[in-house]
Amino acid sequence: MSAVVGIDLGGSKIALGLVNAENAILARRRIDTVAEAGLDNVITRIAEQVASLRRELPKGQAITAVGIGAPGPVDHISGDLLTLVNLPGISNTPFRRVLSQRLGLPVALDHDAKVAALGEFHFGAGKKRDSMIYIVIGTGVGAAIIYEGRLIYGESNTAGESGHMTIDPNGHPCHCGSRGCLEAYTSGPALSRHYATATGEHIDGAQLAQRAQAGDRAALQVLNEAGRALGIAAASLAMTLNIELFVIGGSVAQAGDLLLKPARETLPGYAFKAVSARVRLRASQLGEDGAILGAAWLARARSKLG
User: Fold this and answer.
1) Helix, strand, or coil (residue 160)
2) Residue 233 · residue 269 · CB < 8 Å
3) Is 230 found in the same domain as 147?
4) Can you give the residue range of the structural domain that contains 279?
5) In this structure, are 106 and 149 located in the same domain?
6) For residue 220, what is the domain's CATH number?
7) 81 and 135 inside one domain
8) What is the CA radius of gyration of the chain?
9) 303 falls within a domain
10) Which of 52, 75, 110 marks a domain boundary?
């Protein structure tokens, strides 16, 4: 019996999971990223954690492959990390190749949103579906499109940049330089900024969700506006792609129906009735485990392809 390791490479933390043949996470490790220390340092510490996880396996079992979800942009074919604004110490590096050489194992690497989408599609909210759109809302907003079981990359590997879909051309300014982007309404920093504008108080996204659940009117209004923006974006994607299941993940999605209810109510106003009636918006079932399980699935799938 073989196991694989799924890795979620984040801006501040790296989460690793040892995943068995039944897709259960047997053991976990978590370390700081410390990207500024450079590629060799990060690779060395990941390799140490993989070795630690190997010792958790029953006798006779082995780790056969490793999968990684990394913040974009990435080249999913070569496994290179490209220009990562938040991880300059490991930007523009052949991350997959170096880690594979260090471990002596096949390594697969892809964009973290796509990897988390694979987890939800195969083991979570998208299980038993043919197609799905996964939208992850956290510090930024990204998406992954799975059509008939396959990830869609687009012609230049940028399919899924839904965070910069225009919701309102006269809307809130976005850090990308445009206005009215979905990210300018729904990301964690955007929610905090809008709450501060309304109240003068600065809180993070998790605190905002807690206050909304406790009935804070300003917090409820901010989440309602974010949900409406999400509903408009989902309507446009549904009309364009005719995919019916949307799974919403990321830290902001932990607000649950406080975010999803206004999205569901808004969507029918921006799509044909025949389309909107079939669309379902669901919260992620796997949470942070989605990235680990998706990376594990990717490791197995790509190692079989050689």
Assistant:
1) coil
2) no
3) yes
4) 125-283
5) no
6) 3.30.420.40
7) no
8) 20
9) no
10) 110
Helix locations, 187-250, DSSP H: 188-199, 205-213, 217-241
Tell if the pTM clears 0.90, that is, is over it. yes
Closest C-alpha to 164, from 300, 72, 86, 93 = 72
* Beta strand spans in the chain (E): 2-9, 13-19, 25-32, 62-70, 74-75, 80-81, 107-111, 132-137, 141-147, 150-152, 245-249, 280-283
Q: Is the dihedral of CA 232, 70, 254, 117 positive or negative?
A: positive
Is 264 contained in some domain? Answer: yes
Q: Which residue has the tokens 């471990």?
A: 103
Give the pLDDT of the chain (306 residues) as one tens digit per residue.
589 999 999 888 999 999 999 999 999 999 999 999 999 999 999 999 999 999 999 888 899 999 999 988 899 999 999 988 778 899 999 999 999 999 999 999 999 999 999 999 999 999 999 999 999 998 889 899 999 999 999 998 888 889 999 999 999 999 889 999 999 999 999 999 999 999 999 998 888 988 999 999 999 999 999 999 999 999 999 999 999 999 999 888 889 999 999 999 999 999 999 999 999 999 999 998 999 999 999 999 987 654
Q: Are residues 142 and 236 in the same domain?
A: yes
SS3 content of the chain, % helix, strand, coil (to 5): 45, 25, 35
163 plus 256 within the same structural domain: yes
112 Cβ neighbours under 8 A, 6+ residues apart: 8, 9, 10, 69, 70, 71, 72, 136, 142, 291
> CA 256, CA 157: separation in Å to the nearest integer?
30
Residue 291, CA atoms < 13 Å, CB-side half-sphere? 23
Domain count, the chain: 2
Claim to verify: residue 166 and residue 246 sit in the same structural domain: yes
Tokens linked to 279: 């669309």
